[in-house]
Amino acid sequence: MENSATDGSGCAGTRQTLGTRMQKTRLSLTRHARELTAEHGFSGFTVEELCARVGISRRTFFNYFPTKLDAVFGHADDGLPAGALERFMEARPAGTTGISPTLLGDLVTLVLEQLSVDDAEIRGAHGFFGILHKEPELLERMMKIGPERQAEFTAMVAKREGVAQDHSGIALLLHTLQFAGIRAIERYLESPEGPTLAEEFLHVMSQARELFAQDLHHDTEHTA
Amino acid sequence: MENSATDGSGCAGTRQTLGTRMQKTRLSLTRHARELTAEHGFSGFTVEELCARVGISRRTFFNYFPTKLDAVFGHADDGLPAGALERFMEARPAGTTGISPTLLGDLVTLVLEQLSVDDAEIRGAHGFFGILHKEPELLERMMKIGPERQAEFTAMVAKREGVAQDHSGIALLLHTLQFAGIRAIERYLESPEGPTLAEEFLHVMSQARELFAQDLHHDTEHTA
User: Fold this and answer.
1) Which domains does chain B have, with CATH numbers?
2) Which of A1, A11, A163, B123 has its CA 20 to 30 A from that of A43?
3) Which residues of B touch A187 (CB under 8 A)?
C-alpha cells in the first residue's frame, strides 16, 4: 500500500502508466458515486446506476474499483493533481542531513496544489465527508481508510526526510495540515465572496504557527 | 453545554456542588462500563450488571447517566482532575490584550494534568477508544460527541482569550494537542520502561514545534 505513494519518482510502475483518460474515468466514478450517495444514501443506488451516469459498462467498472464502497472513497492517488507528490518527493534540498529546512514550505505547497482543484470538486468532497458519519458502512470504512492513508503518507514523508517512518513530529504536522485544510474549506464555503481557499489555508496556518512559537513551559526560556 | 466548561470559576453552580463521593461513583461507572464493553461488547452487558460491579442500584444509576451509552462515554467533566480547568481559566496573565503569551504553556500544563491520572485509567481509556470503531452504535455517538466537546473547549479557550469562539488558530492548536496526547499515550504504552508519559508528550510537542518554526513559504523570510 505504501508503494502507491512512494514509487512515483519516475519509474514506470503500473500505477504511473494509467492513462489520462482512465484517470478521468476513475475520478468521474468517485464524483458521481458521492453525488448519488448524497442524493439517495449509499444503499440507495446500484453499481449499474453509477455506471449509467458515467457512461461505462458494469464490466468496465471493475477495472477501476472492486466494490461500490471503494468507488465512493476514491483512489488514494486521485486526491492530488498529477505529479504533485512526485514534485514534493524531489523537492528535498540536496545535501541536507536530517529534516529539510524547507519541509513545512514543501508540504504547504503540496496542500495548496491539493486545494487548487475546481470548486465543484471541493464542494463534492466536503459534502461527502459531511454526510459520511450518517451511514455506518461508510463510517466504518472511513475509520479504517483514514488512519491507513495517514500512516502511508507519514511513512512517505519520513522516507524523504530519512527519519523513522512513524516520526511523531511529522505525524503531528501532517495531521495538523489536514485539519487546517478542512478548516479552510469550511471557512471558504461559508463565505464564498471572501478570501480564496488558498488564502484561508495560509491564514489558518499562520495563526497556528504564531501559537506554536510560544514557550512550551512557563519556567524555561528555551524548550525546543 | 458550553456552560459545563465555562462556569467553573468559583461560583457555586450545581455542577460544582457534586460531592467527591458522587464524582468517584460517576467515574467508577464509566471505568466499569468501558471494561465491560472490552470484555463483552457494548450490547453484551446490561445496566444492572454494570451497577452490580460498581455496587449501586439501578435507580441510583439514573442519577448519574440517562443511558448506558452515556455512561460508557463518561461525563465531560471527568476527563480532567478536579480544579484543572478552573486553574487554566484563571491563569491568563492580568492586563493582557489579545492572545496570552502563555497560552501554549497553560494548555500544555492542562494536558500534563490530564495525563497525570494513574496508568490503569490511561490504559482503560485508550483501550476503549481503540475498540470503539468496531461498534457502530459507539462510533456513531463518538462522531457526534467528539466534535461537540472539541467545539465547547475551543469556545472556552477563546472566551479566556477574548477572541471569536471558533478562532481557527485555537481550534487547530487544541486539535494538535489532542493528537499529541494520543500519540504520547501510544508511545508510552508501547515501551513502559521508557520515558514517562509527560516526557513523551513534551517530546512530541517539541518535535512538532520545531517543524512549525520553519517558513510557510519558500520565497519569503517572514510569513507569520
Assistant:
1) 1-73 (1.10.10.60), 80-224 (1.10.357.10)
2) A1
3) 168
